[in-house]
Amino acid sequence: MKERNFQGRSYECMSDCSDMHSYLSRCHSCRVENGCFMVYDRPNYMGNQYFFRRGEYADYMSMMAWNDCIRSCRMIPMYRGSYRMRIYERENFGGQMYEMMDDCDSIMDRYHMSNCMSCHVMDGHWLMYEQPHYRGRMMYLRPGEYRNFMNMGMSGMRFMSMRRIMDSWY
């Protein structure tokens, strides 16, 4: 929706949208009727990210302390299967490596790792958070290799916890 509290023009998005500006000059409220989405404050899936599941977000800007509105969104496909990800202490898969198959609320507590700079998602869809206990800014990861988080527009951000996006969230 263009305005807060579902006022103004609306646009229905049923898949990925790299630039909402072509449909709405701004988007300040959102209703997710089915599935899960990552929303971004810049076009082309860049900038701050936030995870939306089924529900209403009448004024998400104050909820997330965003200065801007939704500029792009990505639908997260439903996934039922095993989860597997390797996290690395340094970029380009360097340093200590740990394989994860479940949620981790603190890589420092579990692996004595002070930073995660790259990863390889083999199975499933994941959210990585900059603070322990699934707090702070986040990043959505689907299967693939992520060699350097800093080159992905995440400079200065350290990932300290990660969580699987489960089918029960839909």
From TrEMBL:
Domain Beta/gamma crystallin 'Greek key': start-end pairs: 35-77, 124-161
UniProt keyword annotation of Cell membrane present: no
One GO molecular-function entry: structural constituent of eye lens
Matching PROSITE patterns: CRYSTALLIN_BETA_GAMMA
Keywords on record: Eye lens protein, Repeat
Function: Crystallins are the dominant structural components of the vertebrate eye lens.
UniProt record similarity statement: Belongs to the beta/gamma-crystallin family.
Name this protein carries in UniProt: Beta/gamma crystallin 'Greek key' domain-containing protein
Protein's organism: Fundulus heteroclitus (Killifish)
